[in-house]
Amino acid sequence: MTDDRYRSPLGTRYSSPAMQTLWGEKHRVVLWRRLWLALAEGERELGLDIPEAALVAMRAHLDDADLEVAAKYERRFRHDVMAHVHAFGDQAEAARKVIHLGATSAFVTDNADLLVMRDGLRLVLGRLVALLGALETFATRYAAVPCLAYTHFQPAQLTTVGKRATLWMQDFALDVEGLCHVLESLRFHGCKGTTGTQASFLELFNGDHEKVRELDRRVARKLGFECTYAVSGQTYPRKVDAFVVDALSGIAQSAGKMGNDLRLLQHEGELLEPFESEQIGSSAMAYKRNPMRAERICSLARFVISLQSSPAHTAATQWLERTLDDSANRRLALPEAFLAVDAILILATNVAAGLEVREAVVRRHVDEQMPFMATERWLMLAVAAGGDRQELHEVIRRHSMTVAEAVSTGAPNDLLDRLGGDAAFGQVPSEALRAELEPTLYTGRSSAQVREFVSEYLHPLLRRARPLAAEASSAEVRV
Amino acid sequence: MTTTPALRESALPLPLLRRGKVREVYELGASELLLVASDRVSAFDIVMREAVPLKGAVLTQVSSFWFRKLANVAPSHFITADAGEIVTRHRQLAPHSDVLRGRAMLVRRTTPVAFECVVRGYLSGSAWQEYTRSGTLAGEALPAGLLESDRLDPPLFSPATKAESGHDVNVTFEAMAQALGRSLAEELRRLSFAIYTAGREHAAGQGIIIADTKFEFGYAQDGTLLLIDEVMTPDSSRFWPADRYAPGHGQPSFDKQPLRDYLAELRRAGGWNGEAPPPPLPADVVQATSARYLEAYRRLTGAALEVAP
What is the CATH number of the domain that holds A394? Predict the structure, then answer.
C-alpha cells in the first residue's frame, strides 16, 4: 500500500481505532480461525474422527495469521476463504486435513460478519450511553434556564435550555431501544452448508439429525450466541443487515437533528460548541467561530442515512438460495455505516460535554419577547381589578402593534411602561405588572419534565442497555 | 516555589460527561462520577491559555475539606479525594494515579437540582448591581443606604439558574418554589444557610471573608438530597482578605487579584480588548496567582496541600 492511493477519510480522519480494528482484515481472519476451531471441536465432541492434535495445533495459531501468505494463495486460487484454509494449514500442520470439514465459505464469512456486527453494535451502544450521559448532565444542569422556543424558526413561547436538550436525548434514547432490540434479536448463522439444507453435515454424521442440530447449537454457543436463525439459504437472511443499518441510520437521524439545532442556536449566539483556544475558525475571517463539529455531524449523518437503502435493496434482490451480488455492496455499506456512526457519536459526545451556554444572550432574547408573553397575564390582572376584558384586549392590541413596530427599528420594548401609563390599567399597580415579567413563570413544566424524563424513562432504559454495551472511553476528536 | 507541572486538561480513558471551564466530569459506571479539577483559570469570563500550578489541587482539596468538616450539617456526594483509594476502587485508573493525585474526587452520582443556591453574606457583584438599580436583592427589598461590600446580617438567599460563572441569572425564591415545590425550596434554603454560616465563621477565624458562595444539590438514586459539586472554593465563592476589608467599593480577590490586576492594566493600556483569544500571561503573574491559591488553602485548612510527586 502506498500513500498515493485513495484512502477512506472514515479511516484516516473520523472513526475510532477500536471500530476500525473491528472491521479490519486482521480481525476477520482471527474470527475465521476461531470459527474453524469451534467447528472442529464440535465435530470431535460429537464423535467425528478429528484428532486432539489437530485442535491443539489450531489453538496455537489463532492470532498469528500471516496475511502475506494468504494473499499469495489467493492470487493462485482466486478464492479468499480457500487461501486462508491453506495458510492456516501451513501453520497448524496437524489440522490441515480437517480444517473447514463439512463447511462452505459462508460458514466463516457470514458467521464472522455477525460477530463483527454484534461487537460493533455493542460499541455503538456504549457510545450512545456515553452521549446520553453527557446530554443528561447538560440537560439537568440547564433544566430551569428559560430560553425562547421556536416554531417555524420564529420566536414562540418559552421553554428551557435543558428541556430542549431533553428532546435530543429522547431521540437518542429511542435509538437505544432500537439498538437493544437489534442486539437481543441478533442470531448466529451456524452450520448450514451450501444451500442451507445441512446436507453435508447430515452425511458426516451418517444421517443423525440430532447430531447435526447439536453441532449447529454448539458452534453458536462457543462463539457467544444463544441460538441460530431457524432456517437459511447459503447465507443468513440479508434482512438482518437491513435491520442493523436501519438502527444505525436512526442514530444518524437523531444526530442530524441535534446538529442542525446546534447550528441554528450557534447562529443565534445562544449555544456554542467547544472551541480549542488555538483553533482557527476561518482562514480569512479571523473573528469567526464556526459550528464545524455540528456541521460534520450533519454531513456524516446524511451519508449514513443514504447507506440505509443499500442493505434494503440487497435483501430485496437476493435470488433463491443466494447470489453473490450482495458481496461487494456489503463490503462497503456495512463497515462504512458503522465507522461513520462511530465518528458521529464521538463528535456528538465531545460537543455535548463541552457545550457553552451564553446565558446573557439567551436572557436578552427572552427579555426582548417577554412583554408580549406577559400580555395575557396582565389582561387577567386588570380584569381581576375590575376592568372590561374586551376593552383591555383592544388596548393591549393597539400598544403591542406600536411597540412591535418600534422594536423592529431598534427601539427597546417599552410595552410595560405604555400599558402602566394607560388609564385602562390604572387599577393595577405597576409592580404587579412588572412581577409578571419573570421568565420562569412561562416555562410551564419544563424543569419537572427534564427530571421526570431522566428518572422515570432514561435511567431504567440505561439499566437495560448497559449490560449489552461495550464500555466506550472518551475518544479524541480530530478537528 | 513548587515545580509541579500544571495540567491544562485531563484526558482519562473514561466516558466524558462534561468539560467545564475548569473541571472535567467522567462517568464511572452507573452510580459514581470522577471530578477532575484542571489548572485552567478564567478571568473576565475567558479561559486563559496558561494553567496555574496547584490551582486544581486547591479546588479539589478545599471542597474535600468542607465536605468532611460539614458532613453533620449536610450529607454530600463525597466518597474520597484520596488517589490511592480511588485507584483501589477502580483498578483501571491505576496507570493514571499521577493525574488523579490531589486533584480528583470520587463522588456518588446524583440528578442535580436545576437551581444554584447562592448565599450572600456581603453585598457585591450582581447583587450590588441589582441593589443600586432597584433597592432589592432577588426581588426582595433591602434597607436603604447600604454600601458596596457591606456585610449582610442575616445573610441572604438568592437562587439562580445555572451559570458557568459570572452570569448568574438571579430568580426570586417564589419562582424557584414554583418550579421545585415549596418544601424542597425551603429545605434548600435551610441547608444553604446552615452550610454558609458554618463556613463563614470558620474562614473568618483564618483571616478570609467568604463574601458569597453558591451551592449545588442533587438527588441520590435513593432520593436523598445531597450537597454536590464544589463547596466554598475560591472558584465558587468570593474570598476576600479580611485584613484589607473596607466597605464602600469593590474588594480585592484573595486568589485571582494578581491575574485581574494584570489583565485590567493590559486593557487600560489597549493591549487586550477583553475578548477571546486571551493574551499570554507572564510567568510571574501565573506564579503569583498560584501562590495566592495555595495560601488560601493553607489558611482555610491549616494543612499542607497534597500534590503529585
Answer: 1.10.40.30
- The secondary structure of residue A228, as a DSSP letter, is B
Nearest chain A residue to B276 by CA: give it: A277
How many CB atoms within 10 Å of residue B284?
10
Quick one: closest CA in B to A286, which residue? B277
A393 is catalytic: no
Sequence ranges of chain B with CATH classification 3.30.470.20 = 112-244
Domain topology for B1-109: Phosphorylase Kinase; domain 1 (3.30.200)
pLDDT for res B41? 92
Cβ distance of A144 and B115 shorter than 8 Å: yes
Q: Is B47 on the interface with A (CB under 8 A)?
A: yes
- Note the pLDDT of residue A141: 93
- Inter-chain residue contact B171 with A454, CB threshold 8 Å: no
User: Over 80: is that where the pLDDT of A283 sits?
Assistant: no
B162/A144 Cβ within 8 A: yes
ipTM exceeding 0.95?
no
Looking at beta carbons, which residues of chain A come within 8 Å of B162?
Answer: 141-142, 144-145
Which stretch, A79-83, A431-435, B41-45, has highest mean pLDDT? A79-83
Nearest-by-Cβ selection for B18 from A134, A143, A145: A134
Residue of A nearest to B23 (CA): A354
Dump pLDDT digits (tens) for B283-301. Answer: 999 999 999 999 999 999 9
Domain that includes residue A428, residue range: 361-437
CA distance A134 to chain B (A): 4
User: In which band, very low, low, confident or very high, does the pLDDT at B2 lie, cut at 50, 70 and 90?
Assistant: very low
Q: Which of B12, B19, B180 sits opposite A353 (nearest CB)?
A: B19
pTM, 2 dp: 0.91
Mark whether A84 is an active-site residue.
no
- Other Cβ atoms less than 10 A from the Cβ of A379: the count is 18
User: Is residue A286 very low, low, confident or very high in pLDDT (cuts 50, 70, 90)?
Assistant: low
pLDDT on residue A35: 98
B-chain CB neighbours of A133 within 8 Å are: 15, 17, 27
A239 and A258 in a single domain? The answer is yes
What's the mean pLDDT in A11-22?
Answer: 91
Candidates 3.90.180.10, 3.40.50.10240, 3.30.470.20, 3.60.20.40; CATH matching B112-244: 3.30.470.20
Cβ pair B162:A441 closer than 8 A:
no
> Cβ of B162 and A360 within 8 Å?
no
Tell me: pLDDT of B308 over 80: no
Contacts of A153 (CB under 8 A, 6+ apart): A264
pLDDT per residue as tens digits for the range A171-220: 999 999 999 999 999 999 999 999 999 999 999 999 999 999 999 999 99
Separation CA A274–CA A362 (nearest Å) = 17
Is the pLDDT higher at A238 or at A373?
A238
User: Which of A76, A101, A126 finishes a domain?
Assistant: A101
Which residue of B lies nearest to A162 if distances are taken between CA atoms?
B114
pLDDT band at residue A439, thresholds of 50, 70 and 90? very high
Contact B178 A440 (CB under 8 A): yes
